[in-house]
Design goal:
With 333 residues, this protein is α/β, with parallel strands linked by helices. It has two domains: 2-149 and 241-279, Bacterial extracellular solute-binding protein, family 7 (D-Maltodextrin-Binding Protein, domain 2); 153-239 and 281-318, Bacterial extracellular solute-binding protein, family 7 (D-Maltodextrin-Binding Protein, domain 2, 3-Layer(aba) Sandwich). Helices cover 46% and strands 19% of the residues. The chain has 13 helices and nine strands. The chain has helices at 2-27, 46-58, 79-84, 95-99, 117-125, 130-140, 180-188, 201-207, 217-222, 248-252, 256-290, 300-312, 324-330; strands at residues 33-38, 63-68, 90-93, 142-157, 173-176, 192-195, 212-215, 231-247, 294-296. Strands 1, 2, 3, 4, 5, 6, 7, 8 and 9 form a nine-stranded mixed β-sheet that branches. α7 (180-188) links the parallel β5 and β6 (192-195). α2 runs antiparallel to α11. The longest helix has 35 residues, at 256-290. The radius of gyration is 20 Å and the shape is globular.
């Protein structure tokens, strides 16, 4: 993890410099605040639609919300760097990306950990998250505003052979985002994981550079991956989440009233997106079948046993705070 540590040290300096800029920004608190948001998601993604509908209007009295989609402003996995260096105000980030800076965040990337969307919210709002959030603020200059439900991730393949167990994924080249946590998950599923930027996935599937990818059903629909694949294996291996992140310097430059409005707008947008995403997941299996894909559930228990054993035997578990898995399991009960 020496790379992550070095990266953290460099970014701490950037975050400190950004914090100094906030002193000048506070002096002009009456000016409109620029909130540029960078994401690799599409304009039709339920998260980004909800942010435009609920977050933008919620902060409109004092801020200009400026979303940038499809990685056009900053490419995937560089947004946190940009915020820490004072070059960006907001991003949709992931536990996998945060684990590159803070290894303990890898617990939230583990397969078959979160039970469902409601459990994600309970965990995020539980005191168990406080030290995680505080560390991100103190060492990276990033504030995590809310948790956003991305969906249950499934394996989506261009191959035709039926998959029932992890052994059936042996030799399958599965695209994963290019972080250690993501690549480990792909390996734990039994596949051969390869890193690839999100914007390259469609072409990769189309040309056969990769055999498959994993994402929630709405993402498969929005990015039209179903056009270049033949089956969806409903592994539900990760109840995936994102965090809506904002520059801590930008947050600190806000008045208490502006902070309250920003937090409320973030939570409202997350709730809208969550409900829509859940509804879409219930509908899309039939949509993909109508498009000619085979959509079926494998031996999920075989996958769960294989994935959990891989995590418990890995170096990731060494970085997890003692008792954190039990605390996560107890959240919301």
């Amino acid at each position: 993890m020496s790379y992550s540590f070095t990266r953290r040290v460099l970014l701490q300096a950037g975050a400190a410099a950004t914090a100094l800029c906030a002193l000048g920004a506070a002096a002009t608190a009456q000016d409109r605040i620029q909130l540029r948001m960078s994401t690799v998601a599409t304009e039709s993604d339920q998260r980004t639609v909800a942010l435009e509908e609920a977050f933008g209007p919620g902060v409109a009295e004092f801020a200009s919300y400026e979303p940038h989609y499809n990685g056009t402003l900053f490419r995937q996995a560089t947004e946190l760097d940009a915020i820490a260096r004072g070059n960006l105000e907001m991003a949709i980030t992931s536990a996998q990306e945060l684990a590159e800076f803070f290894p303990e965040f890898s617990v939230f990337t583990a397969g078959y950990l979160h039970r469902d969307a409601a459990h994600q919210v309970a965990v995020f709002n539980d005191p168990l998250m406080d030290p995680f959030k505080q560390k991100v603020e103190d060492e990276l200059g990033v504030k995590l505003l809310t948790v956003m439900y991305l969906g249950r991730r499934h394996v989506n393949l261009r191959t035709e052979e039926e998959v029932q167990t992890p052994e059936d994924l042996a030799g399958i080249t599965l695209r994963m985002p290019g972080t250690e946590a993501w690549l480990f998950l792909g390996s734990a599923l039994g596949a051969n994981p390869v890193p690839m930027a999100f914007g390259e996935v469609y072409t990769g599937l189309q040309t056969g550079a990769i055999d498959g990818q994993d994402n929630p059903l709405p993402t498969v629909r929005d990015s039209r991956f179903y056009e270049v694949t033949k089956q969806i294996v409903l592994t539900s291996h990760l109840v995936d989440l994102n965090y809506l992140a904002i520059s801590k310097a930008t947050w600190d430059a806000m008045t208490p009233e502006q902070q309250e409005a920003t937090q409320a707008a973030a939570d409202a947008a997350a709730e809208v997106a969550r409900n829509r995403q859940l509804a879409l997941e219930d509908e899309l299996a039939d949509f993909f079948r109508a498009e000619g894909l085979s959509v079926y559930e494998p031996d999920v228990e075989a996958f769960r046993t294989h994935v959990q054993a891989a995590y418990l035997a890995s170096e990731f578990a060494n970085d997890w705070p003692e008792g954190i898995v039990d605390a996560v399991n107890a959240a919301g009960n």
